[in-house]
Amino acid sequence: MQISPFRIERYYAQWEFTTRYMLSSSDCESRTIAEVLALEPDAHTRLLEQWCGYTESLGAPELRRAIADLYAGVEADDVVVVSCAEEGIFLLYHALLGPGDHAIVETPCYESALAVARSTGAEVSEWRREYASDWTHDLTALERLLRPHTRVLYVNQPHNPTGTVMDSSTFARVVDIAQAHGLVLFSDEVYRELEHEPGTRLPAACDVDDRAVSLGSVSKSYGLPGLRLGWLTTRNRAMRDRVAELKDYTTICSSAPSELLAAVALRHREVLLDRNLGIVRRNLPLLEHFFDRHADTFSWVHPSASAIGFPRLSGVGDIDRLCERLAARGVLLLPGSVYDERAHVRVGYGRANLPEALELLERELPAAMAISG
Ligand SMILES: Cc1ncc(COP(=O)(O)O)c(C=O)c1O
Questions:
Q1: How far does the centroid of ligand 1 lie from the alpha carbon of residue 190, in Å?
Q2: How sure is the predictor about 373, in pLDDT bands with cuts at 50, 70 and 90?
């Protein structure tokens, strides 16, 4: 398999655990195991008594049930538990694509959505969104990318890195296009349920299309990335079984304690979401005021979901130098170069310490701008 280095993850491998303030994370403020266990009276005892043997390959039954409850029209049997969404991306693309196939990927995107698709030997086209068009989805452009051998259409809503959400009529058209052309709609929904206004939530793809696959994770909206737990949900049993066959070559089954903790967390997810949305709603105005004060430098399409946004910076020569200088001074932004968007940075507003991080950014920005020039 030929695959290029994952630029986002390489960047974070270098800076995430040594930089004082993480101001670009896509996951919300996390919690301790004790806090998760406190959500259910017998959870602590159950965790201590958890057998550390292998678990069922498709996932622990109680977790598959808790995941199915996130959706309107799927059963526990439609769920494959994976050891994080990243594994789900790997498995689904390798289940569906190979040389001679064609895939379409909404970009800019979380890099594995593009790189793993390419690693299968398939041809991959980008359905690219542009800041100059307010990141809108151009359906005509999507239709122009279709080929007779197109098999998969990947979309990610709510979207990394812009934090925007497609409107529901556009999503309905995307589903129509996938169905009309026999494509598998691979819908990365890891930021679902963190819409700032719940009314903007899209239906899950697995609910509206029986060939589509929804990708989920406890990492982002629920703030539990350390559990390394995700899922693929589809009513297409042949595809589910093919994914399970490949999973025998990656992880076989997921971590037993993580499955237990994830099931508890999902059964009480409104507690997690309320706290996380509270942090997002408190932080977002602070970030907006910061951008207003620096309106000559920052402009953005206002995010409406998730804990991330993707402002554009004016007057910066080298975005990597700017971000590296800021990281060395204690504030971690993610340079847009890792998304092939060199005029942007990704910011995250899901962490409790954002006010302190912004104060430091305010102090360090002028010197970093000068250096990047
Ligand atoms: C769009 C998207 N999909 C998938 C993932 C992977 O999430 P996980 O932590 O569950 O592997 C990420 C993580 O940043 C993401 O942004």
A1: 6
A2: confident
